[in-house]
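Sequence only, no structure available. Ideas?
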Amino acid sequence: MTRVPSSPLPEAAPVVAMIGGGQLARMTHQAAIALGQRLRVLATSADEPAAQVSPDVVIGLHTNLDDLRRVAEGVDVLTFDHEHVPTELLEKLVADGINVAPPPQVLVHVQDKLVMRRRLEALGAAVPRYVGLDSLSQLAEVDAFAGRLGAAGDTPLVVKAARGGYDGRGVRLARDLADARETTRDYLADGVPVLLEEKVELRRELAALVARSPFGQGAAWPVVETVQDDGICVEVVAPAPDLTEYAAARAQQLALWLAAELGVVGVLAVELFETTDGALLVNELAMRPHNSGHWTMDGSRTSQFEQHLRAVLDYPLGETDAITPVTVMVNVLGAAQRPRMTLDERLHHLYARMPDARVHLYGKAERPGRKIGHINYLGADAAELPQLRERGELAAHWLAHGQWTDGWDPHEERRR
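Reply:
I predicted one. Tokens follow.
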């Protein structure tokens, strides 16, 4: 009888733990597979997007130290799908010897908008004019701030909860000064500090996505244009159309400089306002893979998810060049009423009409306004941009609602 020699055990691959079981962790898991790595996920339930696909899942809460310690046990590095982990708990993990990336003293800049604004201002980065309010005793500062801006009573101001907001939540464009005063009072009464800022005269919103490793290597993707609807990103165009080489380089250099100054490890998204006079103002930061970088999954040499893993593990970073002249990413947001047609059937019809669509679904239950997936369209020429945007809008609406807004009928198309 011939014996088959036993195979040697494979070398132990790096283990990365990610706090949060959402779509960002799910797509990071996809990148980890290609790199021969394991991604361990802390999820609140087994049906979260990343928990559906990862074989290494810890069920628990990001606000519970014991759960954080369980997911961090034996890992090479601990990183984030979201930024809501209390820094005091992360500091305990660091004291335990856990490699946390980005570190808690860095992460606080995206957890607290006032901390972020004050640090950016101290560094000399251009930001919208603002004032921070911590208590109801400062409520009169709303009127004083409006006066310093030269704002009339009907001039809108932006009221932001300093902590806890995302995807437009916790951000209110006040109708007038009275509305700003009332919204600020409500936040402060609930114990939530407020960032009150001017409404900037915008040309558009941009995002500069970069990555930085502990070694200090940095890499920047092309600057993109982001389109928002009610505070939620609905479309990204890469690269940002009609952005001069000088402005694009300035935005990339700003993002790389901020990553170095703040000590970021991993992906950093710098959301920017491009004003009507051409200035670039920093609006928000995110220290994780970001919605503005989903286009990189199909349109760049290295996706943001692979790059984030490379960065937190201190690998050399990948090339970030676009592989096509233009990429349009559209988010698929849950409809007000879920269609009778299953999502899989909708996907079937989408591919029948648009076989070039690069669809990424998150395994989420459909709820109104919830991000359930995104679609990338690649163009061979920048002149295709209007058509790509139109197709993206049609496709996103179809996947969400089960209706073609242009009246396209697949059965009629077959008859032709």
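The chain is about 30% helix and 25% strand.
Hope that gets you unstuck.
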